[in-house]
Amino acid sequence: MSVGTMGSESLRDAMVDQIAADHAGKGLVLRPEVEAALRKVPREVFTPGLPLQKAYDANAAVLKKMRGAEAISSVSAPYLIAEMLGQAANALGGLEGRHALEIGSGGYNASLLRELVGPTGSVTTVDIDPEVTGRAAACLAAAGYHDVTVVCADAEHPIAPGRRHDLIIVTVGAWDVPPAWRDQLTDGGVLVVPLRTFGMTRSWALRRYGDRLVSQSHRLCGFVSMQGDGAHEMRYLDIADGVHLRLDEDQRIDHDPAAVGALLTQPREEAWAGVSLPPVTVLADLDLWLATRLTHFVVLSAQETAVRSGVVAPGWRFGTPATLDEGTFAYRSALRWTGRLFDLGAYAHGPAAAAAAERMVEHMRAWVDAGNPTPRLHVLPAHTPHGDLPAGAVLDKRHNRLVLAFTPDEKGID
Ligand SMILES: C[S@@+](CC[C@H](N)C(=O)[O-])C[C@H]1O[C@@H](n2cnc3c(N)ncnc32)[C@H](O)[C@@H]1O
Predict the structure, then answer these.
(1) Long-range contacts of 123-126 (CB under 8 A, 24+ apart)
(2) With CB atoms counted within 10 Å of each terminal CB, which end of the chain scores lower, N or C?
(3) Whose CA is nearest to atom 26 of ligand 1?
(4) Which residue minimizes the CA distance to atom 12 of ligand 1?
(5) Which GO terms describe its cellular component (predicted)?
(6) Could you list the active site residues?
(7) Phi and psi for 224 in degrees, rounded to 5?
(8) Are residues 323 and 290 in the same domain?
(9) Does one domain contain both 258 and 365?
(10) For atom 14 of ligand 1, which residue has the closest CA?
């Protein structure tokens, strides 16, 4: 049967088969109950007007609302929803009977959660946009999910003061963890949140221990940004046609963007780590390692056209570690493959290009020599004295002090 003639159920099964295969390719396991929920909920009900095949594209988010060129609301990509539900279920040892709060509504994820928590659990979903909550409530009813509580509010603040949830799953990109999220969790409860650190977003599953949160797992992801009182804009510097630098937290650049762009026209130096890594290697971990070690760190992003024309050749065009140090620009390069294994490299332009590229690959080699460690994120209240912080790279946000720790005993634990 061709995709064009497949019905809803067959397309849904094909989508789930693909998600399961993608999970396996990343070394992840699609939990049976998450798989069962994905095979049950009719996604097309939450994407009205969209051709059926598109509703069942495992890798595509469906954009729902734009402000200028920026998406502010979407139905998230199924593979990512599956990964985040998996993070939640792994961290809590299953979701049956759990009380879940979803931040960022749409209806699809809330229906999956409704399936996962079962009759003894509960699901509340909150969105800042009344148009979204109106649509989510209507779609949930159309799909037969009448017992999801839909709330319109800015989730930066407590939703139902005093109420605690076992799980808070955030489906919008956050820059910090507002105290309300921690306070609405049971002790031992889990917050799954796409959180930006050093200009790079990961979906972190964080378990609450009193006033602190500690990560259990993380996944690479991208999300529309949070609006309302918790909004925190990323700054972009356009350095050449289709080439941008992202600046987050207190990162500063004292150079004129055109001068940085002009560096790209200077000869390119390269250095290679001389390693042979398999495709399952989690480069998202390497990128956080580099962010916590490189001085004058920035994130390079590029449009496809800029990559195709060879202006830049980054490791990942949606966000690659880079440095801008004393008039020299260096970044993690595209991978160099030999058969089924790859090497890590750096490209650099500017007066000290060869040294800058070599410095970057030394950090890459150190990560490989340390056994490709994965970071653990600790989130502590902003007033925590320095002496009480765990060892690691400290990032001060509005409400919290974040610590990213890479130690050999801190391999992913889910
Ligand atoms: C990616 S969409 C959510 C997708 C949804 N979970 C689904 O099942 O398809 C992100 C949503 O977050 C909402 N949002 C943004 N800032 C918010 C805030 N401060 N409080 C609550 N919702 C917010 C947006 O209005 C948007 O609808």
Answers:
(1) 123/147, 123/148, 123/149, 124/100, 124/148, 124/149, 124/150, 124/151, 124/159, 124/160, 124/165, 125/101, 125/149, 125/150, 125/151, 126/101, 126/102, 126/150, 126/151, 126/152, 126/153, 126/155, 126/159
(2) N
(3) 73
(4) 104
(5) cytoplasm
(6) 76
(7) -65, 150
(8) yes
(9) yes
(10) 104
Indicate whether 31 belongs to any domain.
yes
**199/239 same-domain check:** no
Q: Which residues of 29-43 are buried (b: 16+ CB within 10 A; e: fewer)?
A: ebbebbbebbeebbb
Shortest-distance Cα residue to atom 3 of ligand 1: 104
Q: How many domains does the chain have?
A: 2
Cα of 299 vs centre of ligand 1, distance in Å, is 25
Q: What spacing in Å lies between the alpha carbon of 283 and ligand 1's midpoint?
A: 28
pLDDT along the chain (414 residues), means of 10: 74 97 94 98 94 93 69 82 98 98 97 98 98 97 97 97 95 97 98 96 97 96 93 89 86 79 95 97 96 94 93 94 93 98 98 97 97 96 96 95 80 48
Ligand 1 binding pocket mutation candidate from 75, 129, 157, 203 (most atoms within 8 A of CB): 129
User: What are the pocket residues of ligand 1 if the criterion is a CB atom closer than 6 Å to any ligand atom?
Assistant: 73-76, 102-109, 126-129, 132, 154-156, 171-172, 223-224, 226-228, 230
pLDDT of residue 5: 67
Q: Evaluate whether 68 touches 88 at the Cβ level (below 8 Å).
A: no
- Sheet containing strand 235-240, edge to edge, reads 235-240, 243-247, 297-302, 320-325, 328-332, 345-349, 268-272
Cβ neighbours around 258 below 10 Å, total: 10
* Cα separation, 264 vs 328, whole angstroms: 10
Question: Separation of 134 CA from ligand 1 center, angstroms?
Answer: 13
Q: Ligand 1 centroid vs 171 CA: distance in angstroms? A: 6
Amino acid at 191: L
